[in-house]
Amino acid sequence: VQLVESGGGLVQSGGSLTLSCAASGFAFANYAMVWYRLAPGRAPELVASISSTPSGESTQYATFADGRFVISRNNTRTALSLQMDSLKPEDTAVYYCGKGDTGSLDSDVRHWGQGTQVTVSS
Known about the structure:
Elements: E1 2-6, E2 9-12, E3 17-24, E4 33-38, E5 45-50, E6 59-61, E7 69-74, E8 79-84, E9 93-100, E10 109-112, E11 116-121
Parallel strand pairs: 2-11
Antiparallel strand pairs: 1-3, 3-8, 4-5, 4-9, 5-6, 7-8, 9-10, 9-11
């Protein structure tokens, strides 16, 4: 399993960024995927998750992300994205892409990318 995040950077408050995660080494279409973030001095936070089941895709967002962030996946390109709008300084963190153990939203996650830094200036 290989997960490679990109798209992080420095952005002003109110700005937007789109994070990408290139996945390889597994049957991407069969697994749920997640975005987590880790900021200094804070516990890891689940940002968003997207399932992949026979009945289709579902998404789930943390309260702080709902309405501002959109998670999506492209199973053909084996890529995961996170569109982030209306960014706030408190969104500053390292963002990690993760692979679920199953296709369900409540799947455990045991594989992670190396992370991409997002810094939001006030």
